[in-house]
Amino acid sequence: xxxxxxxxxxxxxxxxxxxxxxxxxxxxxxxxxxxxxxxxxxxxxxxxxxxxxxxxxxxxxxxxxxxxxxxxxxxxxxxxxxxxxxxxxxxxxxxxxxxxxxxxxxxxxxxxxxxxxxxxxxxxxxxxxxxxxxxxxxxxxxxxxxxxxxxxxxxxxxxxxxxxxxxxxxxxxxxxxxxxxxxxxxxxxxxxxxxxxxxxxxxxxxxxxxxxxxxxxxxxxxxxxxxxxxxxxxxxxxxxxxxxxxxxxxxxxxxxxxxxxxxxxxxxxxxxxxxxxxxxxxxxxxxxxxxxxxxxxxxxxxxxxxxxxxxxxxxxxxxxxxxxxxxxxxxxxxxxxxxxxxxxxxxxxxxxxxxxxxxxxxxxxxxxxxxxxxxxxxxxxxxxxxxxxxxxxxxxxxxxxxxxxxxxxxxxxxxxxxxxxxxxxxxxxxxxxxxxxxxxxxxxxxxxxxxxxxxxxxxxxxxxxxxxxxxxxxxxxxxxxxxxxxxxxxxxxxxxxxxxxxxxxx
Length: 506
Description:
Elements: H1 10-44, H2 47-57, H3 60-68, H4 71-78, H5 85-112, H6 114-117, H7 127-152, H8 156-179, H9 184-209, H10 215-219, H11 226-244, H12 247-257, H13 260-277, H14 281-284, H15 286-300, H16 303-339, H17 348-361, H18 365-371, H19 376-381, H20 384-399, H21 401-426, H22 433-453, H23 459-476, H24 482-491, H25 497-504
Helix pairs in contact: 1-8, 1-13, 2-13, 3-5, 3-7, 3-11, 4-7, 4-11, 5-7, 7-9, 8-9, 12-13, 12-20, 13-17, 13-21, 15-16, 16-17, 16-22, 16-23, 16-24, 17-21, 18-21, 20-21, 22-23
């Protein structure tokens, strides 16, 4: 019997294709512009001040996770299935209004207890800066719901515009502050203005394309069915585990067991790797890919389709992630010193370990678990927190940022193996061993070439030649198989089809 390829409705395919360019630009521009801001601040601020600044900025993400109680996952999971704008508007505003009291409470607790924990994590004399940043935390948390709504309704163009507004205003503020020789308090105000501007734009976009709030949204609580409730609660526990494994918590651990200078070293490594991580296709297209993945699985209902998408996302991610690793091994030390200062050359080994985490250890098993309605597997995977804490406490006092990066690597490996193992107990999920071996060979060849080239030319010229070598290796080592090329062809807009075929083959 001849096997038939799964199909998908034209409206999903067209929505995804229309959103794809904007999703790409949104991710790439945000990365490049935020990197500019980081470079300016690292060069301007003393290392201790930069470490304290990153510690305070890092509190925004945990606040959002704690106040969302899993809704950030359930919204992106179930909102696309709602048929009308009215239903989507009632869902987002009802959920958002009920998050606000908890958001205010957490921010109040953080403010009132600041004197008790500030000294232990190197934030003495930073209460005024922290007070200015508190409204920024609240704006960022609310803004995330607006961005989720726009992504779930394929309004990536508006997400792009809001991101550009935030980054441009933020960089302008940094440049003015450096020129006027301002301190952290000024930069806190600049952050507030930039994020408030993006929030205003996104709120207007959501009201225009989805609908505005009504008084009934304040009175009527969103009624969840058993599937939504289970999914949200499991996702929230997963969020708590992710928070404990995050770079923000890692910085607190380093500050508690080491120095603010090591916090700065680790922050630079994380900042570089996070920007590179954000260039990975799954991160650039995460909202779009998540919606598309769920819709494809729901329409076909087959494990084979999950395996196809798992292998496809894995391969597409690794084309970028393994390239970063292959380039960074020979060129990373020189690039860090050139971009920042010689003080930050110590960020090389922590950054290298974190790149191994995303290039070799990382795998999109979380998306598969969510698609198969097994979010509890992500909860179990947070046992990796014990690995990270145990390794960090053992290594950070002696090795600082390198010890923390080692803990992050081992915990990520444990987390992914737990999810993959649990998935394979119920579903025939296939790990792409053949593809992994081909990627390994391609990375060794290109990295070796760059080792030779950097001895004869500036690292930037070597990197340009390395890009051509990596592009050739994509086809030479068949990093995408024929089925994965077919899936890619269905997602790439028509105007980019020729370029895609030239790079990946047809």
